[in-house]
Amino acid sequence: MTDESNLSKSLAEMAPISGRKTLCDEVAERLRELILLAKLAPGAPIRERDLAEAMGISRTPLREALRILEAEELVVYSPTRRPFVADPDLETLEQNLSVLGAIEALAGEQACRNATDEEIAEIERICQEMVEGSETDEPLTFFRRDMAFHEAIVTASRNRPLAQTQRQYNARLWRARFISSQRKPDRPRTLRQHEEVVLALKARDAVATAAALRQHLETAVENIAKTRSEQAEEGRKT
């Protein structure tokens, strides 16, 4: 099966465009999903005409969506303005994740002071859902719960500029964080770290919450490095 037919099949399996968002936002969301699942592989060219045809849209909203993803650093352009899926090196990912770790640690500290009991209960509920679904959830379902867990903490910080900055960094790290969340051998440690964050939040312990979140993001760096090493080893074998 060709790459184009694989892509068309993946698009056909997605839910229809709902119209609840603008068309370019809907298209951007679909492209993020294709990139997350490596249906659009890192470093691969994005053929606008073929992709627009497969999605049943004109090239105008597709190009607008690609500009959104360019701002998120999920898409890059060549000097001749041809779009490609971004393929950042490990050093770049580590640098971005270290910044994100500092941002989320600060959000955790502030959430300890500002979160309501109901918000902390919701964070705990998401954590429990992740534990219960860790063996059965579809990859995207598990990942979205993971991101919802982090987003709920940032929202509970009551710091709008911090939340905006976290969203910007998180957007460019979606693929990397997805890879980390899909490493099943390392998932028990990830879930334990989430539980440690919840316990620290419930105790309103700002220092422990920040430390747990920072450690959690450092684990993501380790997971990504392992995956890249394994992929390189597989490449040498083939």
UniProtKB/TrEMBL annotation:
Residues 21-88 form the HTH gntR-type domain. It comes from the Bacteria. This is DNA-binding GntR family transcriptional regulator. GO terms for molecular function: DNA binding; DNA-binding transcription factor activity. InterPro entries: GntR_C, TF_FadR/GntR_C, Tscrpt_reg_HTH_GntR, WH-like_DNA-bd_sf, WH_DNA-bd_sf. It comes from Limimaricola soesokkakensis. The keyword Transcription applies. The gene is ydfH_1. Keywords: DNA-binding, Transcription, Transcription regulation. PANTHER family: TRANSCRIPTIONAL REGULATOR, GNTR FAMILY (PTHR43537), TRANSCRIPTIONAL REGULATORY PROTEIN (PTHR43537:SF50).
